[in-house]
Target: Glycosyltransferase family 2 protein
Amino acid sequence: MIDHCASAGKYLISAVIIAQDDESRIAGAIASCKAFADEIVVVDGGSKDGTVRVSEQLGCKVYQNLWPGYAKQRIYGSERASHDWIFVIDTDEVVSELLAKSILERKKDLSDGKKAYAVFRIGDFLGRWMGKGERLVRLYNRNNVQYKDSLVHETPDVSNNQVMNLTGTLWHYGFRSINDHVARFNKYTDLEAEEAVIAGKPFRWIRLLYRPPARFLQKYIIQGLYRKGIPGLAVAVFWAMYEFLVCLKHYESVLVHSKVKHRHEEEPLKEGKKYAIQ
Model:
């Protein structure tokens, strides 16, 4: 194991965790940051379990802020950190020893605040690690970089040419159960469809027809999930379903909005006739 030597390094890092009812797993996320973080900030969105108690017992600075959305909650946490360099981690993630060493080494020279650092994250599903993983920006200087205010899939607003990769792995223990997975996909697709409507994006049939099978092929064939048996097939199908639901919910929202607008345009005349004083 790595010795707890977070202070060994010229620059200081605050690890920021946004949390909601995850007392059974947040301890793992917190413990995995101890080797490099000079403080750990937990922002709780209104947990009804022991998330706050566990975080406080493990020495974290805990703030409670009723859930405003993913990006807003991350921004809230970064603003309350003591240090400008922010490392973002979720309650169901664990920093590997190699990644912790990489961050600890990087602490010696974080002089360029415009640069941000990406980690390699890989997730589990039905007991197996899935696919090729993904690169996510998780270490940044809040004076130069901040999260985009988006409803879902929030990311720090930084150009790719300013991002450097850290070695090691961020293990994502995101799978709880099939029911939980379906519930979260339902929530995320709601948010993504809502974001498309807010942005004024038109519904397109081609996206509905093209995106689901394309996503399945990307995950199952290109990323090699066919090698992962039933769990791999399930993940590929879930991603196809995700794309289908986003498109369908976008269509539904556009349809409802169109009907409401049409009704409002007609109702004044109808209501005027119905209730006109004789």
In short: The helical segments are 26-33, 51-57, 70-79, 97-106, 178-198, 205-222, 229-275. The radius of gyration is 22 Å.
